[in-house]
Design brief:
Strand order of the largest sheet: 8-7-6-5-10-9
CATH class of the largest domain: Mainly Beta
Radius of gyration: 61 Å
Strand content: 15-25%
Structural class: alpha+beta
Number of helices: 15
Largest sheet: 6 strands, antiparallel
Number of strands: 26
Shape: elongated
CATH architecture of the largest domain: Roll
Helix content: 10-25%
CATH topology of the largest domain: PH-domain like
Length: about 650
Amino acid sequence: MVSKPVHGLPLLPGFSFSDPTKTNFHRNQTLGYRNGFAYTRLPTVGFGGDRLHANQLSQADLNELANKRPTLTFEEPKQVPPSDFIPAHVAFDKKVLKFDAYFQEDVPLSTEEHYRIRKVAIYYYLEDDSMSVMEPIVENSGIPQGKFIKRQRVPKNDHGDHYHWKDLNRGINLTIYGKTFRVVDCDPFTKVFLESQGIEVNPPEKMALDPYTELRKKPLRMYVTPSDFDQFKQFLTFDKKVLRFYSIWDDTDSMFGESRAYIIHYYLADDTVEVREVHERNDGRDPFPVLLKRQRLPKVLAKNSKDFPRCVLEVSEQDVKEWFTAKDFAVGQPVTILGRTFFIYDCDKFTREFYRDKFGLPEFSAIDVSKKPPPAIKQELPPYDGFGFVEDSAQNCFALIPKTLKKDVIKMLTDEHKVLRYMAVLESPIPEDRGRHFIISYYLATEMVTIFEPPVRNSGFFGGKYLGKTKIAKPGSCIDKPTFYGPGDFFIGALIEVFGHRFIIQDADEYVLKYLESNAKDYPPSTILSLKNHFLKRQPTTQESDSGLIEDYKEKKDIETLIKEIQERLKNSDFLLESPIREAFQILDKDKTGYVDREKFFGICKNFNLPVDDCLINQLIRMCSSGEGKINYYNFIRAFSQ
């Protein structure tokens, strides 16, 4: 027991006594912890809980210590240790920002609602900046709900940025993966956190209401007792009595629409209507005979019928103001059944008698609804562009892939290798063109014309082919239906215009006269007469070839000049070998007449590779030919000698 001296007495033995009322004699604690650090302190209370005044500071001492800064006298100051690093997943563990939002979803296949409002909760996890969207489950909603977007870092744009808590606030639109959410509110922790970070939080908004959900909250409608109409009497009176109407549904105004036939049955026993489709053989449609099953059809609905769920419940008497009856069907009148308009054009005999006895109407006359064929469209060919033949250009209009024109095979077989040859001069104001001679060849099998100019030395013109095989139209003829030159137009002195160039016919082959005389009924007599007079006036000339070609050099050059020209042309070639060629012809000419058959002649030329296609050599062969199918090879060999 601790003794306590009496106040005012000296601290001597005998002057102290014990306090019997004290029960607490433990020592005062001088060690403690503050903010996780240990520190020492002076005792303020003695044994038994008595307050000690020796270790207490006065108010003046406390004020001096508050304003005094400690200084070091004998050593350098120590740096304050940095604060411990705390990771984000530790500092923000279980700290989540929650926002209330909604988005609007379109409902395209419903007559009751056009859109719906779906409420969601957006969670932002501060520890890893991830987000998730949860949709609360609504009972009997029929929509899969729950986790709408799983927890992840949500991209903000196409540049790779992600949403941060600084981008979130109330009263903003938030687009996540193409879905736009309207943020309307947040919880208190989210609000305090955003305000602590210096973000001004927008005022909250009201959550949008779903119109269809509000519609379902309306009270149920009240029904009245149905009337006491005797349907059994109607059934017994009109049992098995049906009105039949023939109608069509014209849907040609819409894309891929057509006109289809239907039969409308009206059952008098219970005032029901049935629509059946008329199928034709091989119409390509599925064999479903009934378009509308037998049922009562409402004509006028009540005002509140729009909200009635007809997709699951049948329309009752209270929802319909007026039903379809027999008086709504008449021949010649359209009737609209469930949005589809049918035109009634006829009915059967029983239906006519029923309307006559029941309503006093005259007999219905059938209406002709058969479609008249459209007027034939005259196909006109586009104007001719001048390229190729008119017949070939017209084939592009008859088929996608043009077909080859059908040729007159009989004419090609009969007139094959039949060529009419004429000699003409060029009519031109240019003096250099006045002396030019041309050979015009008309091919009877194809009715085409070629023009060849024999080469003349030192004339200034190359000669050779002047015009390839083609048909020549007469000047002034229609460009779409041109008239082409024919054998009847080539007479002595005729002016032939070929693509702007004018040629005057001066001579012809004797074969031309023979051919025209053998087919005199097909050609003008004036053409045949002009050729006869020309050949009568012509003086005898050198031997003509079997084919009757014109002697291009008969008035200007003789055979000697022609042989010299051939030798001049072939002087640098290897054809000037007279001895082998002469020996080959002499072997065939056993009678030593100087003539060889044409076939044998061309056979030798082929063996020696002689250029018989050359214009000068071809002209020499013509001049060396006789009328008996033989060729004088003496003059021909001279052209190939040195």
